[in-house]
Amino acid sequence: MDFDPMGVATDLVILTVQGGSFEVLLIRRGIPPHRGRWALPGGFVRAGEGLEQTARRELAEETGVGSGDASSDAPRIHLEQVATYGEPGRDPRGRVISVAYLALVPDLPTPVAGSDAASASWIPVAEVLDDPGRLAFDHHRILTDAVERARAKLEYSPLATAFCADEFTVSELRGVYEAVWGIPLDPRNFHRKATRTEGFVVPLGATTTRDGGRPAQLFRRGSAETLHPPLTRG
Amino acid sequence: MDFDPMGVATDLVILTVQGGSFEVLLIRRGIPPHRGRWALPGGFVRAGEGLEQTARRELAEETGVGSGDASSDAPRIHLEQVATYGEPGRDPRGRVISVAYLALVPDLPTPVAGSDAASASWIPVAEVLDDPGRLAFDHHRILTDAVERARAKLEYSPLATAFCADEFTVSELRGVYEAVWGIPLDPRNFHRKATRTEGFVVPLGATTTRDGGRPAQLFRRGSAETLHPPLTRG
DNA sequence: CCAAAAGTGTTGCAATTACACCCATGG
DNA sequence: CCATGGGTGTAATTGCAACACTTTTGG
């Protein structure tokens, strides 16, 4: 038996935390379908290209970072697959399957508009989630799934460090948790948990006073893949 | 820009627990490529068909249950998407993207060989995981990912009930956990956790002596989607 | 009666929370 | 000296593992 050929695309949920706000990168579509509407950045997988490779290419096009090329010395961006969406009729161009990826980036310079985007902007996640009609295609569902994944993974993985610069303070790390989860955390207990959890963060010895008050130690992400014990919400 | 057309398939990781053994349904391929080798059941997505619909169709073909048709009164089988695999070169027939699904079924009658399968058998999961060369394509990776997902979800979701018949005892439920995790659990503490966790299981009043000894209460799965608190491994 | 499996009570350790308190800087 | 944020100590509580013990059947 032969197969029915289909289009395969990747869509990206690029998340960041800026000044205590949890935001997603959206584009205003410059070409049909859904021209002029907000959507997740994405594009078709090319013939010889792997799925993650496509996602990294799109990420680089939109943000200017994270291309997986050996030639690039850009910071390593966290990128993971979330799910695949393939209902017939989800794209008016024909039968298109979309593999959604979640990317977590630190505070970045202004986003760049890609080829199919009239413009690109950081928008607060909560605002978009509260308005199911805001996004084109089935992108509201994709965003919902990706954000849920991110929120869950903060608990048991060191993923939050992906939102931070190379060097960060415990407060900055806590700010990530507070922004993503949308709840305040006790700074004193958080400090203990973050620093005592094996392999989560490693102290650099240096300090900074960029947040005012007593100088804070600087840390880099550790080597742990999972957090024991996990950080809990609430 | 137009897209490069590709084949889209679903592959199924169908898991069950039989007599304390955690097993996966494999087929011996009856057609090329990889004719004669073991593989996960799967097949191409048809033109007007949704991804999950394809998975349910394949599941019904292999096991005779769980088709999503309204006409079917077969039991509802747990089916969830795991991940999508799309490296160029993973399938010699051309560029094929495969969406992997995880299905959990209760102890079932003998499996049926589908159209592309010479035969189908239940094989212990541990045995297959220990032998990376056993499966065709990249199916060892898919199985690894799916089993990891299943093991993790037992902790915080009522998924284990999907391996049980409609009515089950606490011991039978514990047997599922022990088989999937591969470790023994304290029957007394497990009983408390399972029955005290809100919405996990609901007592039916009836009892059974099918396991010997004192009669055990029968339960049905509850309505909870997540377990609070979770059941922990170790 | 004994064996086997179901189910309950209790105890002690470990993790977590809530918050009092001290530290180090800038203004 | 005060405000601000960084960081430590500690008591009350909760959660959980370990295991003694009781219950209800079959043989």
UniProtKB/TrEMBL annotation, chains A, B:
A GO MF term: 8-oxo-7,8-dihydrodeoxyguanosine triphosphate pyrophosphatase activity
Keywords: Hydrolase
SUPFAM superfamilies: Nudix (SSF55811), Winged helix' DNA-binding domain (SSF46785)
Root EC class: hydrolase
EC code: 3.6.1.55
Domain of life: Bacteria
Disordered: annotated span: 205-234
Domain Nudix hydrolase, first and last residues per copy: 5-149
Positions in coiled-coil regions: none
CDD domains xref list: NUDIX_NadM_like
Pfam families: NUDIX, WHD_NrtR
Family label: Belongs to the Nudix hydrolase family.
Listed name of the protein: 8-oxo-dGTP diphosphatase
Species, as recorded: Kribbella italica
